[in-house]
Amino acid sequence: MNSELLKALDMLEKEKEISKDVLFAAIEDSLKAACKEHLGKNENVYVEVDRETGDFHCYYEKEVVETEDDIEDDSLQIALAQAQEIASSAVAGDMIRMEVDSAEFSRIAAGRAKNVILQKIREEEKSSVSNFYRDKVGQVVTGIVQRYVGSTININLGKADAQLTEKETVPTENLRLTERVKVYILGVPDTKKGFKILVSRTHANLVRKLFEEEVTEIKDGTVEIVSVAREPGSRTKMAVRSNDPDVDPVGSCVGQGGARVDAVVAELRNEKIDIVEWDENPGNFIQNALAPAKIVAVFADPEEKTAKVVVPDYQLSLAIGKSGQNARLAAKLTGYKIDIKSETQAKDAPGFRYEDYLDDDEYEDDYEDDAYEYDETYGESAEEYDEEPVGEYEEPTEEESPEDALQE
User: Fold this and answer.
1) Is residue 27 within 8 Å of residue 8, measured between CB atoms?
2) Which range marks the domain in which residue 231 is found?
3) Contact assessment for residue 307 and residue 299, using Cβ atoms and an 8 Å cutoff
4) Parallel, antiparallel, or unpaired for β 197-200 and 161-164?
5) Same structural domain for residues 320 and 381?
6) Residue 365: in which H helix or E strand, if any?
7) Do 274 and 294 lie in a common domain?
8) What are phi and psi of 137, to 5 degrees?
């Protein structure tokens, strides 16, 4: 029987990932509960289980008193004469240990012992699963869409179900039952009913982690993702830099023929992704972040975290983007409040005269080239972002919508 017990414990440890020491402790607790049930709630009960052989012994202790008249609680005390029948050397005041035959346990006591073991196994199994996913907080895992519960989607992760709430669901996505999907683990909080796993499809770090999976240079630290700005389901901007001068960070993320970025785009259901190069010069970084718009000049104030940007008249709508999206994402990506003006607006704006920073001849030559490049290259992009030109963009507060942040 003991060998069968050890085999069962080995199987539980392997399948349920529950430590054998925990299982032995559960058995000791169950035997102790059964022994107390059998003896009438005796508090001085001890159980010993040999971890190597599986042998176990149940004991209870009683205090030795002089005579039966001195006994106040017969479950805790024993007369000297009776004690000496068990241990001839016993004297008054000793604690004498007596073994209990587990075969004498009643059916009720044995049933309760079984329930204690099963309850402990269930508790440890839940604890093991919760700890497993707590170690994965901040990571991306793959799950299967299990069912819809109101506006919440249950995602089966294998060991447990996760909850994808409406807030963390991309509005444009229509996740189908049994569909495989990657999610970002937000946290594993405890509740009155146990633990729950919260996941997200909207978190900016989902994009970061997907690129870490796809791009070898990011895994080994050659390329670093500096920042990510995302509007889920629509567009993401990601800034990267290389720790090796011979490695192109943007090219590494795009991959040969766009294979790497296409894999991430497919997982995000065709969400557009702009990958730009980070630059320690804030003016250059802001210029990169506003791509695909052409920029005439950027005047950045690192202390105030503000920047004034001048673009050609025909590039203003492209720089700001549809509903202000391009400027909004660039501001999130760089951490700067960005004020975008066309060249016509800038000429008349006090303190915003880019002519003071450019050579006149160079300025005229640059604009002739820009106009040609726009006709040939940026026609389609301009249509994509086409809208009425607007001016300054500020990061929206909680009380105002993103559109309110765009001021004429």
Assistant:
1) no
2) 203-278
3) yes
4) parallel
5) yes
6) helix 360-377
7) no
8) -60, 130
> pTM for the complete prediction?
0.68
CB hemisphere CA count around 247 (13 angstroms): 19
β-bridge pairing 194-195 and 140-149:
unpaired
DSSP at 279: -
What's the residue count for the chain?
408
The alpha-helical segments, DSSP class H, found in 268-355 are 282-289, 316-320, 325-334, 343-348
Of residues 274, 288, 292, the one with CA closest to residue 237: 274
CA angle 261, 265, 267 (to 5 degrees): 120
Token pair of 8 as six digits? 């069962």
* Residues 227 and 239: beta-carbon distance below 8 Å: yes
Rounded distance between C-alpha atoms, residue 394 and residue 343, angstroms: 20
Instruction: Choose among 220, 271, 273, 217: nearest CA to 247.
Output: 217
Contacts of 194 (CB under 8 A, 6+ apart): 126, 130
Question: Do the domain assignments include residue 135?
Answer: no
Same domain, residue pair 11 and 122: yes
Residue 202 CB burial class (10 angstroms; 0-12, 13-18, ≥19): middle
- pLDDT for res 238: 97
In tens digits, the chain (408 residues) has pLDDT values of: 466 667 777 777 777 677 777 778 877 777 777 777 766 666 677 787 777 777 777 887 888 888 888 887 777 788 888 888 888 888 888 888 877 766 666 566 567 667 777 787 788 888 888 999 999 999 999 999 999 999 999 999 998 999 999 999 998 898 999 999 999 999 999 888 889 999 999 999 999 999 999 999 999 999 999 999 999 999 999 999 999 999 999 999 999 999 999 999 999 999 999 999 999 999 999 999 999 999 999 999 999 999 999 999 999 999 999 999 999 999 999 999 999 999 888 887 666 555 554 544 444 444 333 333 333 333 333 334 444 344 444 444 444 444 444 443
Give the number of domains in the chain.
Answer: 4
In a domain, 391, yes or no: yes
Measured between alpha carbons, how far is 141 from 199 in angstroms, rounded to an integer? 9
SS3 14: helix
CA distances from 107 to 2, 48, 58, 101, 122 (A): 20, 22, 17, 14, 23
